[in-house]
Design goal:
Blueprint (H helix, E strand, L loop, with lengths): L2 H7 L11 H7 L8 H21 L5 E11 L2 E3 L5 E6 L6 E2 L4 E5 L2 H65 L4 H61 L2 E3 L4 E4 L8 E2 L6 E5 L2 E8 L11 E6 L2 E13 L25 E8 L2 H7 L5 E7 L12
Antiparallel strand pairs: 1-10, 1-14, 2-9, 3-5, 3-8, 4-7, 5-6, 7-9, 10-13, 11-12, 11-14, 12-13
Keywords: Coiled coil, Membrane, Transmembrane, Transmembrane helix
InterPro entries: AaeA-lik-b-barrel, MdtA-like_BSH, MFP
Protein name: Membrane fusion protein, multidrug efflux system
């Protein structure tokens, strides 16, 4: 190509560049410009990724349920004796300490019963002491009768020896018949005396046995009266109804002047120790173990998050302990996923007690594994 030709193709400087700007822009490629379709697709991908990250990914290291409630070992306060309420030291929602006197029943009838039982016991004890004295006296009579038998038996033996001697003399002609007859009469008299003493001794021994039996009966009567006194004192102590646990008063249905019966629920005490009963599906329990970390969110306080631990798993589904357990051996069978109660305790019971009460609905989350650090914001 010649220089002349090149000069012809070179644009003239006199032609302004501003007039050619649209042509230049049209010839340039469309760098940095995005179509609406690509923006929408990108946004959808980001949304799907975010939803999956938030809802699906945490399932690898945690399980959760909103079928969970605050629970406690609520203590029902019931009277053990029938009486009128004379004094009430608590009110609705009052805080009570352990062994604090809450309700005073009218004690007068029970105090009278204690006094009667005490008097009966003293009477029974006096009767037992009297029988003991009779036994000691009878023992002396038995000993005396035995001594009389021994003395009269010795006299009988001597009389028998005299009779034998006089009989021997009489057979040889050295003795007299009169002396022999006198010795024989003396033997008979001594023998009768011994028999009389023996009869008296036997009667004394028989009375001694009767007294020993009466002593046993008197001892039993004393023990029975002691038991009656103990029962009367126990019933008197039942007129003072104290708190079995520390906590808060709830469900109070008693007022001063009410006549209460044994077994009637007067009020309940919600203890200071609360826990969570979370009903997880059986398919969620594969990796759940006692001791695993949990978080609890309370419906009544959306911003509140409490920490806890898995305490235990119930050995049986909830339906197993229902009033009418399912019977799958008859009829058409429909498989239903069962739920198992899991007990969760709080790391800080005091904090939990400050915010929540039994019966409140919560959402429980159990961490079956430790999540990656970069995903900790999903906890």
């Amino acid at each position: 190509m010649t220089d002349q030709t090149m000069l012809k193709e070179t644009p003239s400087p006199s032609v302004p560049l501003q007039g050619r700007a649209p042509e230049i822009k049209a010839a340039l490629p469309h760098y940095g410009r995005s179509s609406p379709r690509s923006l929408i697709v990108g946004a959808l991908i980001a949304v799907v990724a975010g939803v999956g990250l938030y809802f699906y990914v945490p399932g690898f290291w945690q399980v959760s349920t909103d079928d969970a409630y605050v629970d406690a070992h609520v203590v029902s306060i019931v009277p053990k004796v029938a009486a009128y309420v004379s004094k009430l030291n608590v009110n609705d929602n009052s805080k009570v300490a352990r062994d604090e006197l809450m309700i005073q029943l009218d004690p007068r009838d029970f105090q009278v019963a204690v006094d009667i039982a005490n008097a009966d016991l003293k009477s029974a004890q006096a009767n037992a002491d009297n029988i003991d004295a009779q036994i000691r006296e009878q023992n002396a009579i038995v000993a005396e009768s035995q001594s009389a038998i021994d003395g009269d038996q010795a006299m009988l033996d001597f009389a028998q020896q005299q009779f034998d001697r006089y009989k021997s003399l009489e057979s040889t002609g050295s003795g007299t018949v009169e002396r022999l007859q006198q010795a024989e009469a003396d033997v008979g008299q001594r023998r009768a005396t011994v028999q009389h003493d023996q009869a008296a001794h036997d009667a004394a021994r028989a009375h001694q046995v009767v007294l020993e039996t009466q002593k046993l009966q008197a001892k039993a009567a004393v023990e029975r009266q002691q038991a009656a006194l103990a029962q009367a004192q126990l019933n008197l102590s039942y007129t003072k109804i104290s708190a079995a646990e520390a906590g808060s008063v709830a469900n109070k249905t008693v007022e001063v002047g009410n006549y209460v019966q044994p077994g009637q629920v007067l009020l309940s005490i919600v203890p200071d120790t609360l826990y969570i009963t979370a009903n997880f599906k059986e398919t969620q329990l594969t990796n759940v173990r006692p001791g695993q970390r949990t978080t609890i969110r309370v419906d009544a306080f959306p911003g509140l998050r409490l920490e806890g631990r898995v305490d235990s798993l119930q050995r049986g589904t909830g339906s197993q302990f229902a009033l009418l357990p399912p019977e799958n051996a008859t009829g058409n069978f429909v498989k239903v996923v069962q739920r198992v109660p899991v007990k969760i305790t709080f790391n800080d019971p005091g904090e939990a007690l400050h915010w929540i009460s039994p019966g409140m609905s919560v959402e429980a989350r159990i961490f079956t594994a430790d999540p990656p650090g970069w995903l900790s914001f999903l906890d």
